[in-house]
Every structure is written in C-alpha cells, then in structure tokens.
Write a structure and sequence with these properties.
9 strands; about 210 residues; 8-stranded antiparallel beta barrel; alpha+beta
C-alpha cells in the first residue's frame, strides 16, 4: 500500500555553492553531524501535449539507494525568491518495479496504480505521457543545530551544481543561521535562483548567482 510522504506545501531554504571546493569545505565542516548519503536518479515526465509544463507543473520519478527506493512527485506553481523556495508538492511512495517499468515505457503511467498518477491524469487531462530525461544527485544529510540539512551534488550531462537545502516552516530564521555559519567559515555562496528541474530543462548551468 502506497502512502503520502510529504505535506502539500514545501518551503525550503536553498543556497547555491559555487564549485566543488566550496562543497567539499561544507561537507568537511558538517562531517561530525553526518546522518546518511543518498544516491538519487531523478526522471521527469510531461503530458504528450505538454499539459503539465503549460500549467507550471512537473512530474518526477525518483529512485534512491535508500528508502524510499522509489517515489513519484507532482510539483506545481514553484516560486523561488531570495533563496526561499515555495512549491505545491504531492509525493507518494511507489513500488520500485512499477517505477522502473514506467521509466522504461512512459505510456505505462496511464495505467499504473498510483494516487499521484491518477491525479495527474484527471486534473491535467493527460491522455499520454512522454519522458523528458533527468539527472543524478548525491545528497548528504546532516542533523545540525536541530536542522535537517541536505547538501546536494547534482550531476547533469552538461555540468555539476552544488546546493544546500533545508526544509522549514521558518525559512527566514533558518536562512539567517545558515548564512552566519557560511560567512563565519569563509564559504562562498549565493541564493539559489533556479530549481534543479529548471536548470535541467535549460540544458546549461546557471550563471554565477
């Protein structure tokens, strides 16, 4: 039986790290607080007539080497301002074999048993699906000062991006704490201005932010 993994509204602080050196500096500083490392494969889909992208929505299948091994996520109406991301999100764990079958043959999304797939078909009027491709991500998770920090190394075909994320109901407070930590340790950073999916769709790394 599948189940919802996350609430509908996701609010995250997103800080971009400029390069591998800054990423290494952060992971070294946070090493005593390391909880886990996740190796993720992210694949995206749209309706055959671009029904999702036309309404600023994205459908993602994520495969991971840690539970949940497969999850399907619908994201919509994302807003990213001053390093704070707000996005409507509906996520559900999915049987790994079903996920792989859908990844190999996107048309199987039309018949796969999933609350999220059903919602996409019904609300967006999708009559067929196409695969858009995707990217891989290595996510280091830390329990630091009562915060769950996720430090990402996202590998696209055209390059690599580095980012710190932290989900919180108090994004401004978390951003202040994180910025203080980075400044104190001389780590360069900027506010993320573009989501991972938007970078993937653009087909190029963002300019220095």
């Amino acid at each position: 039986m599948s189940h919802i993994l996350k609430p509908l509204m996701e609010v995250e602080v997103k800080l971009r790290l400029p390069d591998a050196a800054a990423h290494r500096q952060v992971t070294t500083l946070l090493a005593p607080f390391h909880v886990s490392t996740h190796r993720q494969e992210n694949l995206f889909f749209d309706g055959s007539k671009a029904e999702l992208s036309a309404r600023r929505a994205a459908l993602r299948l994520r495969f991971s080497d840690r539970a949940p091994l497969c999850a399907v996520t619908l994201k919509a109406r994302a807003v990213l301002v001053d390093g704070v991301s707000r996005v409507e999100e509906d996520e559900e764990e999915l049987d790994h074999s079903i996920g792989r079958a859908c990844a190999d043959q996107p048309d199987k999304l039309m018949s796969a048993e999933s609350r999220v797939f059903s919602r996409v078909r019904e609300e967006f009027g999708v009559l067929g699906f196409v695969g858009l491709g995707g990217f891989r991500n290595v996510r280091d998770v830390y329990d630091w000062k009562g915060l769950k920090l996720e430090v990402d190394e996202t590998k696209y075909e055209f390059g690599t991006c580095y980012e710190i994320e932290c989900e919180s109901a108090d994004p401004e407070g978390v951003k202040e704490v994180l910025e203080g930590f980075l400044k104190e340790n001389g780590v360069q950073y900027s506010y993320s201005e573009t989501s991972k999916f938007a970078i993937f769709r653009a087909g190029k790394l963002p300019l220095s932010e």
